[in-house]
Structure formats: C-alpha cells, structure tokens
Amino acid sequence: MKNIILFDPVKVRTNMLPLTYTRPVALLRHGITTISEKWQRAIPGAYSYSTQDYLSIKYPMIEASDGDNLFIAGNIHPDAQLVEAILDLQPGESLIHNGKTIARRGNGEPNSQKEYTAEPFAINHVYDIFMLNDEALRRDFAALTAGKKSQPLSDTNRLIGDPSQLFIEEGATVEGSILNVKKGPIYIGRDAEIMEGACLRGPIALCEHAVVNMGGKIYGATTLGPYCKVGGELNNVVMTGYSNKAHDGFLGNAVIGEWCNLGAGCTASNLKNTYAPIKLWSIAEGRFVKTGLQFCGLIMGDHSKAGINTMFNTATIVGVGVNFYSAGFPRTFIQSFTEGSTLGMRDVNMNSFFDTASRMMARRHVELTPIDKEIFIHIHEDVTEK
User: Fold this and answer.
1) Residue 309's CB: how many other CB atoms inside 10 A?
2) Sheet containing 69-73: order of strands
3) Where would I find the H helices in the chain?
C-alpha cells in the first residue's frame, strides 16, 4: 500500500487564507468532495498531510518506515494522465510543471526531475474555488455516479433536461421542486433535502444532510457541503460544511468555511456599481491585490457569524472566529477573532468563543476538542501579533 502525503505548496497556502488557517490545502472542498478525497479515489493508500506545525497536531504527517513516501501537491486535482505520471515516478524523482513541484517520491531533495507538459487542474488562489467550481463539479459528478443507479425522483417535482444529469443518493428527500440540468448536473447526497418550491439550476451539489429551504433559488456552480442549510438566492457559492444561510438574502461568487452562520436578510455584493475590476485583501501580504475578476463576493473563514440584515461589500474577506452584528456595511477585511458592528470592532474573548463554538457544534453531534482549541489559540495569537 502506498504512503501518500499531501503537502501544502507555501504560496498556495497563503493565497487560500483565511480558509487554510484551520485546515491543510488538500482538505479544501472543491466540486463535491475535498481534494484529499479525490486523491483517495484515484490512488488507494494511506494518506496524511504535510502542513503548518500548529495544524500538525490535528493533521499529522505519517511517513513510511522505509522512506518510500509519495508527496503530492494538495491543490491539484487528479486525472488519469496525471495519476499515471505520478505512479511512474521512481525513488528520488520529482514531477515538475513550470518550475513547481507536482509530486515527488522519497524523502529529501529529489536527484532528478521529470517535466509534466499537460496543464494540471488546480486551485492557486482563494477565488479559484468558486471560479473553477463548475469544472470540479462535473468531474466529481462523473466519478461519483459512474456505474451507480440514482434513486427515483418523486413526481411532485419538475425535471428539465436529461435525467442522466440528476443523481439522488439513498435517504435524500426532494419534493415539489424545479430541477434544471440543461446547463449542468445536479447531485443530491445521502439524507440531503430539497424542500418544496425550491428552484435549482445545475451544476449543483448537495452533500450529505445538506438542506435547501422552501423557495430557495440556487444557481450553478454551487456546492453545499455536509450539513449546510440554505435559503434565499445563491449563485456560484462553495460552502465547506456545517454552515447556514437559511433565510432570504443574496450570496454569489463566494466561499464560506465551516460552522458559519449568516443571519436573516444577510446579503453580499459580488459586483461593483462601477463594474470595475476587483481588488481583494491579501492576508499574507497585508494589502489589496488585483484579481482581474469582475465578480467576487464574500470569503469567510471558519466559525464566523453575521447578524441579521448585514450587508457585505463586494469582495469582502472575513477571518476565522468573527462575530459581526450590525445592519450596516463592515469593512472589506475583518480580522480574525474580532467582534462588533459598524461602530467598532474589538478582540473576541476566547472563552466566549469556545462556548459558542461548542454549542453550535453540539447541535450536529460534533465535539470541539482540546486540539481544536489549541489551534484556535495559535491563530488568535498569530493575528493579534501582526
């Protein structure tokens, strides 16, 4: 059995903040599954992660006793050609594309390199998660449904397009909805639910236990991670898991971490009134950087909250553990572990943060562990020192 270590490319990891404050790059959700899950389907083996030291207490790197480890960049999706090239590596060899390491076999510096000439499918910036989600969804849909039979669609629904582009896993409930698969597939995971009056236009994925509330309007390319609950209008959104936007309001071209909550009426702009190109705050560089994008909405780290009627400006970055409660517009960057309103923000009390996080997670029968607390304390100390 191969020992595979998914590593964080340094530049990619910093480009993905605040989402990578709390997870290795390979555990980012893109398409239907995480990148790690895609590799586990592609190459069977024992998997671990090479990531930041403070994250290693939760995600340790486990090396093979004989030193024959296969390191793969955690931001790259597998495909048949790439998998073949990686499995062809000999001990001491690395696979390179445009000067960047895709994979290497063995410990230490490689003694020879192979150039991979095809263009890997990869995410390199945080906005790539929603920008490239269409392709990621289609790839995952094909992989996850191959050779499987969908559960039947109730006749209370209206399906528009090719029935083969709809897949319903066991335990899912879909009633009184309109599902349009002419522009892309719709995947409905185990025990997910689409309530009556909802309208979905693919490509869309609901992961296990995800819920679309009554009257929800969901456009592709959107992914609702495990246990996410949404309502209102979403367009090209990736929700990592366990997060809620259960009420009316708009969210578009956005990435939401885990354990987040957007209150009733919360809306995030994804387009400037001037139609000007978007600049996005870079946490790593401490400045706004050009993206070349015209559409970009909300990027929110884990365990962050927004109160009812919050209005986010175009391209707003919200860190980890933020609690914003105001009907006004916050700034386009909110530092991790701060709370307040348009009148001012202050540091979050960590004991109060842990109490809130524990209560929220307990509702989904998930425990906030001492290791989780240690990671959050490290992030809090790191951001307050800067």
Assistant:
1) 15
2) 45-50, 2-7, 69-73, 100-105, 93-97, 112-115
3) 10-15, 35-42, 80-87, 128-131, 133-145, 350-362, 370-385
Handedness of CA 148, 189, 322, 299 (dihedral sign): positive
Our CA angle for 264, 279, 315, nearest 5°, is 10
User: Mind listing the pLDDT tens digit for each residue in 60-75?
Assistant: 999 998 889 999 999 9
Q: 199-230 burial by CB neighbour count: b if 16+ within 10 A, else e?
A: bbbbbbbbbbbbbbbeebbbbbbbbbbbbbbb
Chain segment 161-190, per-residue pLDDT in tens: 999 999 999 999 999 999 999 999 999 999
- pTM above the 0.85 mark? yes
Grouping H, G, I as helix, E, B as strand and the rest as coil, residue 241 is strand
Q: What gap in Å lies between CA 188 and CA 32, rounded to an integer?
A: 10
pLDDT category at 384 given cuts 50, 70, 90 is: confident
Question: Which residue reads 């398409």 in tokens?
Answer: 31
273-277: Cβ within 8 A, 24+ apart: none
For 116-145, the pLDDT digits (tens) are 999 999 999 999 999 999 999 999 999 999
Preceding amide of 91 cis, omega within 30? no
Residue 243 contacts residue 225 (beta carbons within 8 Å): yes
Please answer whether residues 337 and 323 qualify as being in contact, where contact means their C-beta atoms are separated by less than 8 angstroms.
no
- Answer yes or no: are the C-beta atoms of 185 and 139 closer than 8 Å: no
- Residues in Cβ contact with 193 at an 8 Å cutoff, skipping those fewer than 6 apart: 172, 173, 174, 210, 211, 212
